[in-house]
TrEMBL record:
Reaction(s) this enzyme catalyzes, per UniProt: a 5'-end NAD(+)-phospho-ribonucleoside in mRNA + H2O = a 5'-end phospho-adenosine-phospho-ribonucleoside in mRNA + beta-nicotinamide D-ribonucleotide + 2 H(+)
Gene Ontology MF terms: metal ion binding; NADH pyrophosphatase activity
GO biological process: NAD+ catabolic process; NADP+ catabolic process
Cofactor(s) listed in the protein's UniProt record: Zn(2+); Mg(2+)
Record lineage: Bacteria, Bacillati, Chloroflexota, Ktedonobacteria, Ktedonobacterales
Family in the record: Belongs to the Nudix hydrolase family. NudC subfamily.
Domain of life: Bacteria
Keywords: Hydrolase, Magnesium, Metal-binding, NAD
One GO location term (cellular component): cytosol
Protein name per Swiss-Prot or TrEMBL: NAD(+) diphosphatase
EC identifiers of the protein: 3.6.1.22
Length: 302
């Protein structure tokens, strides 16, 4: 079993994330569960076509589609899901027929492409909508007996009409960890990554605590041991349903041993010689940015 780390501390409040809108702002979104009745009047639409979100584009500026039922009435679509309210305004998700031709100023945009082109809260709702739509797509038939599934009232759960199975929208936890020794961070390289290095990450196994997962993944991928685990923040990663859980951990002991085929190199970096970083939409980037801020606060204090 996992032994609790000796130092378990909160992230210093002086180093808060820039991306606080996704946490603080998200409080303004209130989830709604079936069988809530879809309100009449203007709503925010999260329609998907071919796994992309349909948005309004004007002068290269993206905005969510807003309007009543007539907005999508002329397009073949599935019955909308009432998923919540943003500042009191109802939010509806639906699927538009893959072949339907769209109004001229609408555009289908993938979630990765949408990142930072809309507000964080709108992006989070779009990712929630995409996951619920995906859940309805994959839960039509029972995985045990293939009978049709039906909704469980009061939530997004679905159950087999023969009664031998029930399921809920999947959330798949995965950890990602920034390993440091105080002044440097340890990053890994995979074949085919070019000059880019990244943080260690991996899926949580059944029956495993998050801290156990951090220690195991680091050990499996690098051969080294870490200590002083600190939880930092998390990020829904809707490709298709991960929840990334971000940690920082201090290097304890060991040298690099490629114990599986994943990494071909690990290397220490100081803040002045960082390699090409993961994309800004990732939690890895957020953890590295936070660590850099901590370094400059340390530097200023000297
Ligand atoms: Zn069944």
């Amino acid at each position: 079993m996992y032994r609790k780390p000796q130092v378990m501390q909160q992230c210093d409040k002086g180093y808060t994330m820039e991306n606080t809108d996704s946490v603080g702002g998200y409080k303004r979104f209130e989830r709604v569960y079936p069988p809530a009745a879809i309100p009449e009047g203007s709503v925010l639409w999260f329609p998907q076509q071919n796994n992309k979100l349909l948005v309004h584009v004007h002068d290269d500026k993206i905005s969510l589609l807003e309007g009543d039922a007539l907005l999508i009435a002329s397009l073949p679509h599935q019955s909308p899901l009432y998923i919540g309210r943003l500042n009191g305004q109802p939010c509806l998700a639906t699927i538009i027929d893959p072949d339907a031709s769209l109004p001229e100023d609408w555009k289908a945009i993938g979630l990765r492409e949408l990142y930072r082109r809309t507000t964080d809260i709108e992006y989070n709702i779009a990712s929630y909508a995409a996951q619920l739509i995906n859940w309805h797509r994959i839960s039509r038939y029972c995985p045990v007996c293939s009978a049709p599934m039906e909704p469980v009232p009061g939530g997004w759960g679905r159950r087999c009409t023969r009664g031998d199975y029930s399921g809920y929208p999947p959330v798949i936890p995965a950890i990602i960890v920034l390993i440091h020794d105080g002044d440097r961070i340890l990053m890994g390289h995979k074949p085919g990554w070019g000059d880019r290095y990244g943080l260690i990450a991996g899926f949580v196994e059944p029956g495993e605590m998050l801290e156990e997962c951090v220690e195991r993944e680091v050990k499996e991928e690098t051969g080294i041991a870490v200590t002083d685990l600190v939880y930092v923040t998390s990020q829904p990663w809707p490709f298709p349903s991960q929840l990334m859980i971000g940690y920082m951990a201090r290097y304890k002991e060991g040298t690099f041993q490629p114990t599986d085929d994943e990494l071909d190199d690990i290397r220490w970096f100081t803040r002045d010689n960082l390699p090409e970083l993961p994309p800004p939409s990732s939690l890895a980037y957020e953890l590295i940015t936070l660590w850099l801020k901590q370094q400059s606060v340390k530097e200023d204090a000297k």
